[in-house]
Amino acid sequence: MQDQKIFKIATITTIIGIIGLILTSGMVMPNELKIKQIDNSHIDEQVQITGHIISITKTKTKTTILKIADNTSTINVVIFNDANIKHLNQIQM
Known about the structure:
Layout: H1 2-25, E1 31-32, E2 47-48, E3 52-58, E4 64-69, E5 74-79
Parallel strand pairs: 1-2
Antiparallel strand pairs: 3-4, 4-5
């Protein structure tokens, strides 16, 4: 009898936890920074930047190097051939 109560409580807690994760997962976003704010303290951290692609360079190994600029600075972004890029928007002008 006691085992059934514990099982029911565990099941309800698990379901509530999963629903909570699903509802809050869309709210977790990387920090949005200006390029000038990026320094060594952001190594291995996901950040979001917004800027204009100044140049695109493809290497022999199919690595792509983007030079991106915003109103504060410029940065080189290296995209390896096997990278999983989720959000790279290109605006046609």
